[in-house]
Amino acid sequence: MYQGSKLKLYREGNLKSVFGNSASQIESQINQKSEDYILNVSEVEFGEFLIQTHIIDFPTLDFENVYVESYEKEIPADRFPGNYDVRSGEIYKRDVIVYHIPYSGNIYILRNQGVSSFSMSGSIDVGVTNDSITTEIINFDSNPEKIKRDFEDCKRFILSDYDTLKKDCARFNNEVLAFAIGKIKERKQKLLSKNNLLSSLGVPLKKKVGVAETFSIPKPELRKKIIIEPKVYEKGFKPEPTLSNENYFEILKIINDVGKNFERMPSTYSGKGEEDLRDHILLTLDPNFEFGSASGETFNKKGKTDILLKYDSDVVFIAECKFWTGKGGYLSTIDQLLGYLTFRNSKTSLIMFVRNKDMSNVISIISEVTETHPNYIRTEKKNGETWWNYIFHINEDRNREISLGILAYHLPE
Fold first, then answer.
1. What is the number of H-type helices and E-type strands within the chain?
2. Using CA atoms, how far apart are residues 388 and 263, in angstroms rounded to an integer?
3. Vertex 322: Cα angle to 264 and 368 (nearest 5)
4. Model-level pTM greater than 0.90?
5. pLDDT tens digit string along 132-174?
6. Domain identity same for 132 and 73
């Protein structure tokens, strides 16, 4: 009646092998992709896609809702206690109490030994159903207290290495995305280095044709949200000049320092318009931008942007300055900024000047509605009460990520 699958807890395998196999499979999937795919795909989105089948759904055991059943079973004489008058080799019928412990998650992960330790407290075989693990206790004496004690012993073995495995799996889940992204970056860097070497030979590079840029996969049967493999529409890749994250944050810090100065000296900036405030920012940025040029009201793609930094002829930073007019105006300004961007632009900022008396309300609105924008991908971090960093994508190409810094400053009427 209860002869379902069996599971020997904490002894049949080990988590080191489980984690190692996952790492190998992730790296193999990355290496199978075409050069163009790796060079153009969003590292974070591809990484999230790769790890979704490797994240461990660690099982939860529900001892609060344990229930029991019983059935009659033939028990060999050698399993009876010594004080029973039974004949060797014979079998006798006895009632068996079956404890059902409900669970959710991947129960079979509990077959493995932990990474960091090995318990000497023993193991136990349990039965496995669709929604519970089972342990059986033979009712020899019809003694409820003894049966309860026997179950407590079983419970101790069931939980012997449970917390150790839980910590190991949580650590793996927390680190696997960074591992995948790191491997994507590693292969991308190798491809870039190779392409730069070939380009330096001074002869045309022959492009392979007929190579599929994306691959279709069967949909995995998961209860959680499925992450679809990111598509890449590029047919080639050419490295473009770009600000390092360090330089990008230094530029935002300069802008932030100027913005805070607006707040500290309200009488100086009272009544100033967007262009005046923008020019103050430009006057500070330009001498700090050693290897390029900073300009204002410069045409880029679909309009004139307020602040534009160039290296040689390439745009490496774009910012827009606006007075706060409410939630709708804020989202429209993000649309306006995105409209300026080409696929070559990756570092941007939106600088909001707020004349509302209730600055706290404006801060709340920015925090809440930015993530509702259709181009929003993820939140990076918040560097202060009025400085947010987000990752968006440019219009019509989700794989082209941009860094968007939002900075807001309270100005007098």
1. 10, 15
2. 18
3. 90
4. no
5. 999 999 988 889 999 999 999 999 999 989 999 999 999 999 9
6. yes
